[in-house]
Fold these 3 entries.
Entry 1:
Amino acid sequence: MIPRYSRPQMASIWEPEAKFRIWFEIEAHALDKMAENGVVPMEAAKAVWEKGAFEVDRIDAIEAEVKHDVIAFLTNVAEHVGPEARFLHQGMTSSDVLDTCLAVQLKQAADLLIQDLDELLEVLKRRAFEHKLTPTIGRSHGIHAEPVTFGLKLTQAYAEFSRNRARLIAARDDVATCAISGAVGTFANIDPSVEAHVAEKMRLTVEPVSTQVIPRDRHAMFFATLGVIASSVERLATEIRHLQRTEVLEAEEYFSPGQKGSSAMPHKRNPVLAENLTGLARMVRSYVTPALENVALWHERDISHSSVERYIGPDATVTLDFALARLTGVMDKLVVYPERMQKNLDRMGGLVHSQRVLLALTQAGASREDAYRLVQRNATKVWDSDGELSLMELLKADPEVSALLSDDEIEERFDLGYHFKHVGTIFERVFG
């Protein structure tokens, strides 16, 4: 985790103190159920809760000698509990603790990410309605296509992040499982009721069948979902970067008083936050492939996944948390220039209305091939003039076109509002 791209609440989930606290709770809850089942003395379970404690530095020191983190933890707890600590970890294996703990951490992280998405969605909805009917040019291949509204652009982003929210909820629920099943998952030395009890206390579901580990397809889906969300972040960030280009300048990141854009050029106002989001998205996606490769472990378990998850668990969730918060801030303060949008719409002499003329000519009796030829030959003149000529006027002056359409009929096909008659329908579909 890099402090520059970390927020405290998410980062705290992955701190050693938080991890060992979860380990302690798993062990203590398991011991409670073993005591209830008569496997260990009830006094032992009480002693663990009353006297149980740990110190991160002491665990690290023990691990340096024994080379095993769970044994180091149990040894440190035993130093506080005393003789009753011998009943801890009865019939359990290290993965029972490690995997159940990771499930708790990923669930906690997902809950924060869902909150992040909710905040982003709220901003996107507000800005979408603000610009519901703000005309702008739609582009395909980076080239002017037909008119849209800026509100529709934001509505599309809202719908995409709504889908991501649903995906994340599903991924959170899928990864939040508990395994307390022993060395190879057979419950040979521990009763399944212990697993059920720990799952309930830790607010997880029972893993139906584990080997020595929780199956890593669950984790792969979780991190893949984070990668998809990161891609959505990048998609919106890339749109902002394009709109802020000097030649476009339809919207730009808020530039605060005193902010500097360049060490060399005082005039510069760069889309640095959106560019940063593009980079952060690349990092989150980079953790997806290792998560997928973790699925194929040897037999009942190996630890090739362990080092991977020590990286990607904290880094992917912390980075995405930061990115979502940053994107929310960008969209909340995004400066929008409707006049520039209109100027860009008008820049190419009405070419954006070419399809309407094409359809009108076919309805007036021209074949589609002839209609396309008539519109394209006039559109080419406008294109070559860099928008200095008017498509409407050229069409009126074209005898083949005027033989089929009157001047009024041609002018009607250049009505900007025509393109927005179903904006309300789209908003209703998305926002209800």
Note: Residues 361 and 405 are 7 Å apart (CA to CA).
Entry 2:
Amino acid sequence: MNIRSFRLGDYAEITSIWKETGLEQTETESLDALAKQLAWDSELVLIAEDHDRVVGVIVGTIDGTRAYFYRLAVDPEYQKKGIGTQLVKALEKRFEEKGASRVFIMVNQDNEKVIPFYQELGYEIEHYITLSKKL
């Protein structure tokens, strides 16, 4: 298993993984969001690769000393093999190298099955309410 930075040729494979795992948005929203993140800091979009096949992805961002990640997804054929954990740990290392002191993640409240995964990695449930507005 190899964890590396995103390359443009990975886009089709990661969008396929996002669709298979229910993290898809529209094609335009996904491409726009990814393009903005890559322009901001391309080292925070990581890919898990197995024998030249993209099998996982995680997208991170930093705001001062606070780091965030989202859209962690592993190809269903490769789940339960520690790939998600490897991606999170690799991204946490990059966050530390860039001066982040705290990491936040947002989980859809309907996706309760991932909460134990994050708790095993040391993440705690915070009691915040997230508000959003589409522009």
Note: The helical segments are 11-20, 27-41, 83-97, 115-120.
Entry 3:
Amino acid sequence: MNDQHIVASFDRDLESIQATVMKMGGLVEQALSDAARALKTRDAELAEQVRKGDGVIDELDLMVKGDAARLLALRAPTARDLRLVLSVMEISSHLERCGDYAKNIAKRTKAMAGVSAITGTLPDLARMSAFVESMINDALDAFIQRDVIKAQEIIDRDIEADQIYNTLFRSFLTHMMEDHSNIAVGMHLHFIAKNIERIGDHATGIAEQTIYAVTGKLPEDERPKHDETARDLQESTS
């Protein structure tokens, strides 16, 4: 088997693994979209579909890890190709966690069945979810295109996701302090918002893997996390 054939075989195998990751990405985006719609419309049946669908995402993650491990063992890739395989495995892990967070949102939605949401919060959560979903989509596009500039733009957008989350948290906290009957639903909504914010973090992680795959270096994490919830909680109870 000549070197050209080995390279072609490696490329085909890697493309197949990347296709599986892109399938995972599509399922994660759909899960987040469905979870947000289930919350907005209080659709317990759709929430249950999201919860059950997470198993498919988990299975694809295991498939990616297994195929990537075999590729590393059989092909002995060069440094750049090795980075690509490792990045694909990391991206798969990020997507698997995103699926878990979408499932958690769906679980909270079911737990809120029959309980009135705090006025005005569901549309805000839907907007936050759409924003984070676009981050996932663009992060995957940046990886496929090996676009470092686009990847960095997604990393920068995470600050806005944090700011949206902080604004929502303060709104929940205000409603809970003004009317203690809002505490139970407010906590559910807060954890939903936190899960969405975490998905944004994983979109950032996917973008960082694009930079690593292309340059061989991960970006230095000099971005301050704009999560002020701990401080707000401390101030509210002091």
Note: Confidence is low (pLDDT under 50) at residues 233-238.
